[in-house]
Design brief:
single chain, about 280 residues, mainly alpha, MetI-like fold, MetI-like_sf, transmembrane helix, MetI-like, transport, transmembrane
Protein backbone atom coordinates (compact mmCIF):
# COMPACT_ATOMS: atom_id res chain seq x y z
CA UNK A 1 0.00 0.00 0.00
CA UNK A 2 1.43 3.36 -1.02
CA UNK A 3 1.45 6.45 1.16
CA UNK A 4 -1.22 8.13 -0.98
CA UNK A 5 -3.48 5.07 -0.75
CA UNK A 6 -3.11 4.95 3.02
CA UNK A 7 -3.92 8.64 3.21
CA UNK A 8 -7.10 8.15 1.18
CA UNK A 9 -8.16 5.23 3.38
CA UNK A 10 -7.56 7.30 6.52
CA UNK A 11 -9.57 10.22 5.17
CA UNK A 12 -12.42 7.90 4.15
CA UNK A 13 -12.50 6.35 7.63
CA UNK A 14 -12.50 9.80 9.20
CA UNK A 15 -15.46 10.85 7.07
CA UNK A 16 -17.36 7.72 8.06
CA UNK A 17 -16.62 8.17 11.76
CA UNK A 18 -19.77 9.39 13.52
CA UNK A 19 -19.68 12.94 14.79
CA UNK A 20 -19.11 13.30 18.52
CA UNK A 21 -20.22 16.91 18.67
CA UNK A 22 -22.73 17.48 21.42
CA UNK A 23 -25.89 19.49 21.06
CA UNK A 24 -25.37 22.92 22.66
CA UNK A 25 -26.95 23.19 26.09
CA UNK A 26 -28.79 26.38 25.18
CA UNK A 27 -30.54 24.50 22.39
CA UNK A 28 -31.67 21.74 24.76
CA UNK A 29 -32.98 24.33 27.25
CA UNK A 30 -34.77 26.16 24.44
CA UNK A 31 -36.45 22.93 23.34
CA UNK A 32 -37.56 22.21 26.91
CA UNK A 33 -39.22 25.63 26.99
CA UNK A 34 -40.57 25.84 23.45
CA UNK A 35 -42.21 22.40 23.27
CA UNK A 36 -44.53 22.92 26.30
CA UNK A 37 -45.42 26.40 25.01
CA UNK A 38 -46.36 24.96 21.62
CA UNK A 39 -48.46 22.23 23.25
CA UNK A 40 -50.31 24.79 25.41
CA UNK A 41 -50.89 26.99 22.36
CA UNK A 42 -52.24 24.00 20.44
CA UNK A 43 -54.52 23.12 23.36
CA UNK A 44 -55.76 26.72 23.49
CA UNK A 45 -56.58 26.78 19.76
CA UNK A 46 -58.23 23.35 19.62
CA UNK A 47 -60.38 23.97 22.69
CA UNK A 48 -61.29 27.59 21.99
CA UNK A 49 -64.69 26.83 20.46
CA UNK A 50 -65.31 23.61 22.37
CA UNK A 51 -68.86 22.91 23.49
CA UNK A 52 -67.94 19.52 24.94
CA UNK A 53 -68.77 19.46 28.64
CA UNK A 54 -65.77 17.27 29.44
CA UNK A 55 -63.34 19.28 27.30
CA UNK A 56 -63.89 22.94 28.21
CA UNK A 57 -61.83 25.76 26.65
CA UNK A 58 -58.38 26.17 28.13
CA UNK A 59 -59.22 29.78 28.91
CA UNK A 60 -62.03 28.62 31.21
CA UNK A 61 -59.72 26.11 32.91
CA UNK A 62 -57.05 28.75 33.53
CA UNK A 63 -59.61 31.17 34.95
CA UNK A 64 -60.75 28.45 37.34
CA UNK A 65 -57.13 27.70 38.23
CA UNK A 66 -56.49 31.36 39.10
CA UNK A 67 -59.56 31.36 41.34
CA UNK A 68 -58.41 28.15 43.04
CA UNK A 69 -54.92 29.52 43.68
CA UNK A 70 -56.45 32.47 45.51
CA UNK A 71 -58.54 30.13 47.67
CA UNK A 72 -56.90 29.33 51.06
CA UNK A 73 -58.70 25.97 51.23
CA UNK A 74 -57.24 24.88 47.89
CA UNK A 75 -53.77 26.04 48.92
CA UNK A 76 -54.12 24.05 52.15
CA UNK A 77 -54.91 20.94 50.09
CA UNK A 78 -51.83 21.57 47.94
CA UNK A 79 -49.71 21.96 51.08
CA UNK A 80 -51.09 18.74 52.57
CA UNK A 81 -50.23 16.79 49.41
CA UNK A 82 -46.73 18.25 49.23
CA UNK A 83 -46.08 17.50 52.90
CA UNK A 84 -47.24 13.88 52.55
CA UNK A 85 -45.11 13.45 49.44
CA UNK A 86 -42.00 14.93 51.07
CA UNK A 87 -42.28 12.97 54.32
CA UNK A 88 -43.00 9.69 52.55
CA UNK A 89 -40.22 10.11 50.01
CA UNK A 90 -37.63 10.96 52.67
CA UNK A 91 -38.71 7.99 54.82
CA UNK A 92 -38.67 5.62 51.82
CA UNK A 93 -35.23 6.85 50.74
CA UNK A 94 -33.65 6.55 54.19
CA UNK A 95 -35.18 3.14 54.90
CA UNK A 96 -34.34 1.91 51.40
CA UNK A 97 -30.67 2.89 51.69
CA UNK A 98 -30.31 1.47 55.21
CA UNK A 99 -32.06 -1.83 54.47
CA UNK A 100 -30.44 -2.18 51.05
CA UNK A 101 -26.98 -1.68 52.53
CA UNK A 102 -27.72 -4.21 55.28
CA UNK A 103 -28.98 -6.81 52.81
CA UNK A 104 -26.05 -6.18 50.48
CA UNK A 105 -23.42 -6.61 53.18
CA UNK A 106 -24.95 -9.35 55.35
CA UNK A 107 -25.65 -12.32 53.11
CA UNK A 108 -27.64 -14.46 55.53
CA UNK A 109 -30.08 -11.61 56.20
CA UNK A 110 -30.54 -11.23 52.46
CA UNK A 111 -31.22 -14.96 52.02
CA UNK A 112 -33.89 -14.86 54.73
CA UNK A 113 -35.71 -11.75 53.53
CA UNK A 114 -35.36 -11.64 49.73
CA UNK A 115 -38.31 -13.99 48.93
CA UNK A 116 -40.68 -11.92 51.07
CA UNK A 117 -39.26 -8.68 49.71
CA UNK A 118 -39.73 -9.72 46.08
CA UNK A 119 -43.28 -10.91 46.85
CA UNK A 120 -44.34 -7.50 48.13
CA UNK A 121 -42.39 -5.74 45.40
CA UNK A 122 -44.40 -7.59 42.78
CA UNK A 123 -47.68 -6.17 44.11
CA UNK A 124 -48.70 -2.98 42.24
CA UNK A 125 -48.15 -0.04 44.61
CA UNK A 126 -51.67 1.35 44.14
CA UNK A 127 -53.12 -2.02 45.18
CA UNK A 128 -51.65 -1.56 48.66
CA UNK A 129 -53.68 1.58 49.36
CA UNK A 130 -57.11 -0.09 49.91
CA UNK A 131 -55.48 -2.64 52.22
CA UNK A 132 -53.99 0.02 54.49
CA UNK A 133 -57.20 2.03 54.41
CA UNK A 134 -59.23 -1.03 55.44
CA UNK A 135 -56.84 -1.89 58.29
CA UNK A 136 -55.81 1.53 59.59
CA UNK A 137 -58.63 3.82 58.48
CA UNK A 138 -58.53 7.08 56.54
CA UNK A 139 -56.06 9.07 58.67
CA UNK A 140 -53.10 11.02 57.36
CA UNK A 141 -50.75 8.46 58.93
CA UNK A 142 -52.32 5.80 56.73
CA UNK A 143 -51.56 7.79 53.60
CA UNK A 144 -47.96 8.41 54.65
CA UNK A 145 -47.47 4.72 55.51
CA UNK A 146 -48.93 3.50 52.21
CA UNK A 147 -46.86 5.97 50.18
CA UNK A 148 -43.68 5.11 52.09
CA UNK A 149 -44.02 1.35 51.68
CA UNK A 150 -44.88 1.65 48.00
CA UNK A 151 -41.89 3.92 47.35
CA UNK A 152 -39.50 1.88 49.50
CA UNK A 153 -38.71 -0.98 47.16
CA UNK A 154 -37.12 0.84 44.18
CA UNK A 155 -34.53 2.48 46.44
CA UNK A 156 -34.02 -0.71 48.45
CA UNK A 157 -33.41 -2.88 45.37
CA UNK A 158 -31.15 -0.27 43.75
CA UNK A 159 -29.07 0.07 46.92
CA UNK A 160 -28.82 -3.71 47.29
CA UNK A 161 -27.63 -4.10 43.69
CA UNK A 162 -25.21 -1.18 44.01
CA UNK A 163 -23.60 -2.56 47.16
CA UNK A 164 -23.23 -6.04 45.67
CA UNK A 165 -21.82 -4.66 42.41
CA UNK A 166 -18.91 -2.89 44.11
CA UNK A 167 -15.51 -3.96 42.82
CA UNK A 168 -14.01 -6.50 45.28
CA UNK A 169 -10.63 -4.84 44.76
CA UNK A 170 -11.94 -1.71 46.47
CA UNK A 171 -12.90 -3.77 49.49
CA UNK A 172 -9.42 -5.29 49.70
CA UNK A 173 -7.82 -1.85 49.43
CA UNK A 174 -9.91 -0.54 52.34
CA UNK A 175 -8.73 -3.44 54.48
CA UNK A 176 -5.11 -2.82 53.53
CA UNK A 177 -5.45 0.80 54.67
CA UNK A 178 -7.04 -0.35 57.92
CA UNK A 179 -10.40 1.37 57.55
CA UNK A 180 -13.04 0.46 60.08
CA UNK A 181 -16.31 -1.12 58.96
CA UNK A 182 -18.14 2.18 59.34
CA UNK A 183 -15.49 4.02 57.33
CA UNK A 184 -15.67 1.39 54.59
CA UNK A 185 -19.45 1.76 54.37
CA UNK A 186 -19.64 5.57 54.35
CA UNK A 187 -16.44 6.38 52.46
CA UNK A 188 -16.29 3.58 49.92
CA UNK A 189 -19.37 1.35 49.67
CA UNK A 190 -22.13 3.97 49.60
CA UNK A 191 -20.26 6.41 47.30
CA UNK A 192 -19.56 3.54 44.88
CA UNK A 193 -23.23 2.52 44.94
CA UNK A 194 -24.59 6.08 44.83
CA UNK A 195 -25.29 6.19 41.05
CA UNK A 196 -27.60 3.19 41.36
CA UNK A 197 -29.06 4.49 44.62
CA UNK A 198 -30.08 7.78 43.00
CA UNK A 199 -31.60 5.92 40.05
CA UNK A 200 -33.71 3.94 42.51
CA UNK A 201 -34.65 7.09 44.39
CA UNK A 202 -35.88 8.65 41.16
CA UNK A 203 -38.23 5.72 40.63
CA UNK A 204 -39.28 5.95 44.28
CA UNK A 205 -40.19 9.62 43.79
CA UNK A 206 -42.40 8.78 40.82
CA UNK A 207 -44.01 5.91 42.72
CA UNK A 208 -44.61 8.11 45.77
CA UNK A 209 -46.30 10.73 43.61
CA UNK A 210 -48.65 8.19 42.01
CA UNK A 211 -49.57 6.53 45.30
CA UNK A 212 -50.04 9.94 46.94
CA UNK A 213 -52.77 10.76 44.43
CA UNK A 214 -54.38 7.33 44.77
CA UNK A 215 -54.36 7.43 48.57
CA UNK A 216 -56.02 10.84 48.57
CA UNK A 217 -58.72 9.67 46.19
CA UNK A 218 -59.70 6.76 48.44
CA UNK A 219 -61.78 8.01 51.33
CA UNK A 220 -59.89 11.26 51.95
CA UNK A 221 -61.31 14.77 51.99
CA UNK A 222 -57.97 16.60 51.87
CA UNK A 223 -55.22 16.76 49.30
CA UNK A 224 -55.12 17.43 45.58
CA UNK A 225 -56.22 13.91 44.70
CA UNK A 226 -59.36 14.28 46.81
CA UNK A 227 -60.09 17.75 45.42
CA UNK A 228 -59.75 16.55 41.83
CA UNK A 229 -61.96 13.51 42.42
CA UNK A 230 -64.62 15.56 44.21
CA UNK A 231 -64.66 18.06 41.34
CA UNK A 232 -65.20 15.23 38.86
CA UNK A 233 -67.98 13.69 40.95
CA UNK A 234 -69.63 17.09 41.38
CA UNK A 235 -69.48 17.68 37.62
CA UNK A 236 -67.14 20.68 38.11
CA UNK A 237 -65.11 19.78 35.05
CA UNK A 238 -63.06 22.99 34.81
CA UNK A 239 -61.96 22.60 38.42
CA UNK A 240 -61.09 18.97 37.75
CA UNK A 241 -58.83 20.01 34.86
CA UNK A 242 -57.29 22.72 37.04
CA UNK A 243 -56.43 20.11 39.67
CA UNK A 244 -54.87 17.89 37.02
CA UNK A 245 -52.73 20.78 35.77
CA UNK A 246 -51.51 21.53 39.30
CA UNK A 247 -50.65 17.85 39.80
CA UNK A 248 -48.70 17.85 36.55
CA UNK A 249 -46.78 20.97 37.53
CA UNK A 250 -45.95 19.52 40.96
CA UNK A 251 -44.72 16.28 39.38
CA UNK A 252 -42.55 18.16 36.88
CA UNK A 253 -41.05 20.48 39.51
CA UNK A 254 -40.36 17.55 41.85
CA UNK A 255 -38.55 15.65 39.09
CA UNK A 256 -36.57 18.75 38.08
CA UNK A 257 -35.48 19.44 41.67
CA UNK A 258 -34.43 15.82 42.13
CA UNK A 259 -32.46 15.91 38.86
CA UNK A 260 -30.70 19.05 40.11
CA UNK A 261 -29.86 17.34 43.42
CA UNK A 262 -28.63 14.24 41.63
CA UNK A 263 -26.43 16.32 39.35
CA UNK A 264 -24.84 18.09 42.31
CA UNK A 265 -24.22 14.97 44.39
CA UNK A 266 -23.05 12.79 41.47
CA UNK A 267 -21.05 15.47 39.69
CA UNK A 268 -17.92 13.32 39.92
CA UNK A 269 -19.69 10.34 38.36
CA UNK A 270 -21.32 12.32 35.55
CA UNK A 271 -17.98 13.93 34.73
CA UNK A 272 -16.22 10.56 34.63
CA UNK A 273 -18.88 9.23 32.25
CA UNK A 274 -18.39 12.23 29.96
CA UNK A 275 -14.63 11.74 29.95
CA UNK A 276 -15.13 8.04 29.15
CA UNK A 277 -17.35 8.86 26.16
CA UNK A 278 -14.93 11.48 24.85
CA UNK A 279 -11.93 9.15 25.13
Amino acid sequence: MTVSTATRVTRTAARRRPSTRKTPRWMLVALEIVVPILLVALWWVLSADSTNTFFPPLQTILQTLVQDLSNPVFLADVGASLLNLLISFVLASVLGVVLGTLLGLVRWVSWLTEPTMHFFRAIPPVALVPIFVAILGFGNETRILSITLAALFPTLIATLDGVRAMDPTMGMVTRVYGLTRGQRIFRVTLPAASPRIFSGMQVSLQTAFIVMIASEMLGSSTGLGAVTLQAQQSFMIAQMWAGIIVLGVIGYVASALFALLRGRVLRWYIRSQQIGREA
